[in-house]
Amino acid sequence: MAHCIFLQVPVRVPISSDSSVRRPVFKTNNVTFHDKSWTSGKPFNLRSENARSRSRFVVCMSVQQASKPKVAVSPVTLEDAKEHPLHLYKNKEPYTATIVSVERLVGPMAPGETCHIVIDHGGNVPYWEGQSYGVIPPGENPKKPGSPQNVRLYSIASSRYGDNFDGKTASLCVRRALYYDPETGKEDPSRKGVCSNFLCDSKPGDKIQLTGPSGKIMLLPEDDPNATHIMIATGTGVAPYRGYLRRMFLEDVPTFKFGGLAWLFLGVANSDSLLYDDEFSKYLQDYPDQFRYDRALSREQRNKSGGKMYVQDKIEEYSDEIFKLLDGGAHIYFCGLKGMMPGIQDTLKRVAEERGESWDERLSQLKKNKQWHVEVY
Question: Catalytic: 113?
Answer without folding.
Answer: no
